[in-house]
Amino acid sequence: MKLVAITGLAALAVMSRAAADGDVSAGATVFAQCAACHAVGANAQNSVGPVLNGVVGRAAGTYPSYRYSAAMKRSGLTWDEATLKQYLKGPEQLVPGSKMMFPGLASDADVANVIAYLKQQRAE
User: Fold this and answer.
1) Where are the domains of the chain?
2) Cα(22)–Cα(114) distance, rounded to whole angstroms?
3) What are the phi and psi torsion angles at 11 (to 5°)?
4) Which residue in 3, 30, 112, 116 has the fewest CB atoms around it within 10 Å?
């Protein structure tokens, strides 16, 4: 009985950790909403929004050849997981005056999944 309980708790801990880390495949699906303005992958180019290859860990407003808003350039943000989580939930709340016209993702799972997906998109 104890072994079953311990095994169950261990499985729950692994599943909780996986959910917190996000699902890359689900993130790719959610990213389809972002793809209207942002590109990732080989040969990605700036569009309405900047390329998001290597965005995790990058200073905000610094991707080459993209015309950022003054608000984004002076935000002082670094796109770590905590900042991305806030931004993806409500871009205008975190960076008022930014050019990103997106209301945000309502689901914490969608946010975690998109971040997991973006972490896979390495800078070229």
Assistant:
1) 23-119
2) 7
3) -65, -40
4) 3
Q: What percent of the chain has pLDDT over 70?
A: 83
Q: Dihedrals φ, ψ of 78, to 5°?
A: -120, 135
Q: Is the Cβ–Cβ distance between 40 and 116 less than 8 Å?
A: no
Fold category of 23-119 in CATH: Cytochrome Bc1 Complex; Chain D, domain 2 (1.10.760)
| pLDDT, greater one: 21 or 96 | 96
Q: Which of 93, 99, 84 is nearest to 31 (CA)?
A: 84
Helix axes 108-119, 2-21, angle to 10 degrees: 70
- pTM, rounded to two decimals: 0.82
Return the SS3 of 111: helix
* 49: enclosing H helix or E strand: none
Q: Tell whether the model's pLDDT for residue 12 goes beyond 70.
A: no
Give the integer Cα–Cα distance in Å for 5 and 94: 43
Q: 3-state SS of the chain: helix, strand, coil percent to 5? A: 50, 0, 50
User: What amino acid occupies position 58?
Assistant: R
